[in-house]
Specification:
Length: about 200
């Protein structure tokens, strides 16, 4: 028997049974109503989802940008030390200039310190000649582990480095730029649509 003929035969048998059996009619009605209600709910959600979103100011992306500066500088120092002449101040100045042009990070300050906290290299906005390294490292650790990651305020990141055989840290401070993120706040329309469609279909 050909597939088409077999399908038609099954269809006719199903229709015939549904006419004879009230139970079969109820099952078919339930399945059709369930299918139509789900389709209606999905369509309603896609059409109305944007109306039920909550906006929130998000600083996580801005803080990631600041951390990227610290990480990339540290990696650049390591690669240059292995394969060429390292000009730390030039690297810092180039990063500062790029940020000045893009304004991606507010009040960007970069410094390279030795293990005692003495500032060896720094960007133009850094005024310190020495820092309390212990306190700065704890502050940087708090930014990684605390809830402040998505809050406003200065961010600070520190990465260990080695320059000309001397151990130290790359420390980057800056004001993260905010962005707007949208989160679902609960869309009741699909539920209403599902209930209305299912009840209407069942009654019909």
């Amino acid at each position: 028997m050909k597939p088409k003929s077999w399908l038609m035969s099954m269809y006719h048998q199903l229709v015939l049974r549904s006419k004879r059996s009230l139970r079969t009619q109820l099952i078919l009605t339930f399945v059709v109503c369930l299918l139509l209600s789900n389709i209606a709910a999905i369509l309603a959600n896609s059409l109305t989802e944007a109306l039920f979103r909550q906006a929130a100011v998000d600083y996580s992306s801005g803080r990631n940008n600041i951390e990227d500066v610290a990480r990339n500088l540290t990696q650049s120092f390591a690669f240059t030390t292995e394969g060429g002449v390292l000009d730390v101040q030039k690297e810092i100045d180039e990063v500062t200039e790029r940020n000045r042009q893009t304004a991606q990070i507010g009040d960007l300050r970069i410094m390279v310190v030795d293990s005692t906290g003495k500032v060896l290299y720094k960007s133009s906005k850094v005024k310190e000649s020495a820092i309390n390294l212990h306190d700065v490292l704890w502050e940087a650790l708090d930014h990684r582990e605390g809830d402040s990651y998505q809050e406003a305020g200065e961010a600070i990141y520190a990465y260990p480095t080695e320059i000309e055989g001397q151990h130290g840290f790359v420390i980057v401070r800056g004001e993260p730029k905010p962005s707007i993120s949208y989160y679902p706040s609960g869309n009741p329309v699909p539920v209403w649509c599902y209930s209305w469609c299912f009840s209407s279909c069942s009654i019909g």
